[in-house]
Amino acid sequence: xxxxxxxxxxxxxxxxxxxxxxxxxxxxxxxxxxxxxxxxxxxxxxxxxxxxxxxxxxxxxxxxxxxxxxxxxxxxxxxxxxxxxxxxxxxxxxxxxxxxxxxxxxxxxxxxxxxxxxxxxxxxxxxxxxxxxxxxxxxxxxxxxxxxxxxxxxxxxxxxxxxxxxxxxxxxxxxxxxxxxxxxxxxxxxxxxxxxxxxxxxxxxxxxxxxxxxxxxxxxxxxxxxxxxxxxxxxxxxxxxxxxxxxxxxxxxxxxxxxxxxxxxxxxxxxxxxxxxxxxxxxxxxxxxxxxxxxxxxxxxxxxxxxxxxxxxxxxxxxxxxxxxxxxxxxxxxxxxxxxxxxxxxxxxxxxxxxxxxxxxxxxxxxxxxxxxxxxxxxxxxxxxxxxxxxxxxxxxxxxxxxxxxxxxxxxxxxxxxxxxxxxxxxxxxxxxxxxxxxxxxxxxxxxxxxxxxxxxxxxxxxxxxxxxxxxxxxxxxxxxxxxxxxxxxxxxxxxxxxxxxxxxxxxxxxxxxxxxxxxxxxxxxxxxxxxxxxxxxxxxxxxxxxxxxxxxxxxxxxxxxxxxxxxxxxxxxxxxxxxxxxxxxxxxxxxxxxxxxxxxxxxxxxxxxxxxxxxxxxxxxxxxxxxxxxxxxxxxxxxxxxxxxxxxxxxxxxxxxxxxxxxxxxxxxxxxxxxxxxxxxxxxxxxxxxxxxxxxxxxxxxxxxxxxxxxxxxxxxxxxxxxxxxxxxxxxxxxxxxxxxxxxxxxxxxxxxxxxxxxxxxxxxxxxxxxxxxxxxxxxxxxxxxxxxxxxxxxxxxx
Length: 800
Fold this sequence. Notes:
Layout: H1 44-51, H2 57-85, H3 89-94, H4 99-112, H5 116-128, H6 135-141, H7 146-159, H8 168-174, H9 183-192, H10 199-208, H11 225-232, H12 234-237, H13 240-243, H14 248-261, H15 267-273, H16 279-292, H17 295-307, H18 312-322, H19 325-331, H20 338-351, H21 357-363, H22 369-381, H23 388-391, H24 400-413, H25 416-422, H26 435-445, H27 451-455, H28 463-473, H29 479-484, H30 499-518, H31 524-531, H32 538-551, H33 554-565, H34 571-577, H35 603-616, H36 622-629, H37 635-645, H38 648-660, H39 662-672, H40 685-689, H41 692-705, H42 714-725, H43 735-746, H44 751-763, H45 767-775, H46 781-793
Helix pairs in contact: 1-2, 4-5, 5-7, 6-7, 7-9, 9-10, 11-14, 14-16, 15-16, 16-18, 20-22, 21-22, 22-24, 24-26, 25-26, 26-28, 28-30, 30-32, 31-32, 32-34, 33-34, 35-37, 36-37, 36-38, 37-41, 38-39, 38-41, 41-42, 43-44, 44-46, 45-46
């Protein structure tokens, strides 16, 4: 169910504030229910027997009165117990509703609620839904002390300004009446709503450390230094009263808040904090100075680093967590050691921030070789051709790793002049052992003029790399020869592997894969002939099916599906036909895949069709996938498709199945982690355009964060690793291209995609791009800032 807030944790079908929900529970105060029910002295019959013993008439009258009172008290206790046991029934009834009907039912339930824990639960749910109509109800709740007031304030803070601004007068009115149970939350809500009249109390609670332990409605720490900056002001934070506070925890928080403000006015107080006696305070101050990017920060910051070498790594880490690449670059303008400069250049490289390309270009002339090399690699990773002159000599570097890194970097620039510059090196004996990397870089460059030279390498041990490079270059001279290799030599049976045919099979395999790089449809008939030839190599028939899928247009896809459905063909042939179906752009024909997903079809056919359905990420198939998941014979295939491109409902049901079905869980884990198959590795531009990547991220998030006993994070880990590494297959996106597309979505207009992109960047450790999005403001700034704040709270390990 989608409520006003689309986060599933606030779905009434999964009430996070139910007593046994499995979610992290808010603090509950049940002390008012702990008094025992009054003891009435036994059963009614026992009491009557006692009353019938020898007593005076007056005693008897008094006794009857006592019995009557006891019976009344017992009945009252019984009624109270029934009321308590049934107190959650209105909430359970509301859970079956949706939208405004749900919210109205919760409001009405609050009006009738008698128990504080029920009121708390209702208030927190209404707050989670950010229900503006419930603000007056929450204001009313502030008149009750303890957990009710605390819950009302907590909900108001979650709703925030301007919707909850009308609560400020009541919050100020009840502030003097608050106790340890509710004061910190009331004060924090006033801070969130920027109530300047509450600044003295905010500072008092802030310096007492009470605000730092509060939680938001999602169970995460709610404290945010920006809130303190906004309401208290930088001038007050920079006062000696706070900078020299005897409590080191408070000084660290002040440094954190000043770092959040990070502008020219905070430089001087942050410099003062660099001389603090506490390491944590110094770290926060250093991070704040780094974030200002103010030239005044460079000298004291680096002086401190040189004075305290033991703090160097922790301070650099703090800078990397908070400071954008342009600001780090400004810090390098000071006089610093070569070693420290290397570290800062490394931070810049890891940021993947295109705003500092000119900085890297200027460093290509640096006196230090490591700095020059790092800058050249970083420039190439950003697609800047100015790196080429610096990288070309590195191809011949005596260190093999450096040489291969340079070749990989040159392949990223992908410009014809790069390939032309590399061609002479093919004859250089110094790079003989690195020729495969050299050919790859030439192929990626698009330098068709290099084709003739590359074609000569087809007769060498680097035949495969040369064939692939020729396919990337679309160099047509050897193309007919590759097509000819599709044909099985006459009178030779390849169906059984043998040593005499081994080299021929290998050469034909190279030719088939090269045709996939060319991307031409005229290879389709030869591939289909090979697939249907029962006397040809099973390995080659399978590879032909894969390449057929890579080349297929809509007409070819329809033909492939028709062949797979053709029961007149043997099972192996039908299976080979669909091998590459999942590597095609199958969205246009995804509606025709259902017949291949029947239990009567071979398992490999079903699997390939399911993968194709998943990669298609077509919302029209959502109901089909959910229905398949509920069928024992098809749930494995449904799971494959859902992980790749299912919707929220299917992901939720898949989690439920994984929790109870160990076999399904282990099969999914095995396929997701397989090193010998690309089933879940494809990432192309089409997968971003269709929304498949974001559906996949959403499904992985649900499987990882659902509130059951099981945590199934394998799909999330796998997709994050693939996004970080890229995919090198036909049409695949390099890591740089993936980062660019994710960043585009992070700064886009769709909130759901922005949140998923931010979470993906956090898991990929792409802190530099998150800092860039945060600093550029506009769409994506809030999402980036949220995950950065969470990551810093978690110590940078990305854990929630």
